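Note to self: keep these together.
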Amino acid sequence: MLARVSLMLIVTAGLCAGAFTLGGKATAVQDDAGGIPPEHPVALALRFRQELGLSPDQVAKLDELRVALAKEFGPYRAQAEAIMHRTQEMQQSGKQDENAAKALQRENDDLAAKMQPVFERYGQSVAQLLTPEQKEKLGQLAHQPQGPEFVMMFVMQARERLGITPQQFTKLQYLQADFIKAFAPLREQMELLQMEVQEKFGKAGKEPSADYRDKFGGIQKQVMELQAKFSERTIKDVLQPNQRAMLEELMRGQHRPSPNGG
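Structure:
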């Protein structure tokens, strides 16, 4: 399980990943620094260090992996941001260019394919650091629902199974660009707050105060409301009735426990 990292195949997911973990434990504030996907085993292991019973040596080695991964992931993130900006420019131009939209998606998919081996390599390194019991426990924790599903993102990932047409796909890309634009101010607030918390609490190894946890909670609430808004638009404005029914079934299946508990 640890080597099979779930890659988000749309740019939004990679750039906004930090937003979806702010409602979790306070220790996640510094654990997710560097912009690596929060579902990666490095980030997960650090986030659940107490539940896993990690030793100080394990935590130190995992933190070294996190820093190294963030550094290696940096150029890929820069490429993703470039794709995002071009998507925004296309959306702002008002031109319905399906060929250009498909080209951007192919570029994004190619980028995801390049990132996969990097994420798998670091996932294997995490596996080598943990005991069999810790790996099993991490697998269970990783499959726990981490909050409401972002339907727009899920639809993009499951577009082939849902039978999304080229016209629908173009609409999804424009919705994605609108979401990125709307999310930008919240992302800036989060990054500034994370830096402040790291300076005041992280360096000293302390938990953020209740005041800062409330601030994070407030931003998280706004993110969830924004997700809900765009998820509703996706279902209402893009999907056909049969696709909506299939979407419900796919999402139920994703959260259904597997027979082996993995």
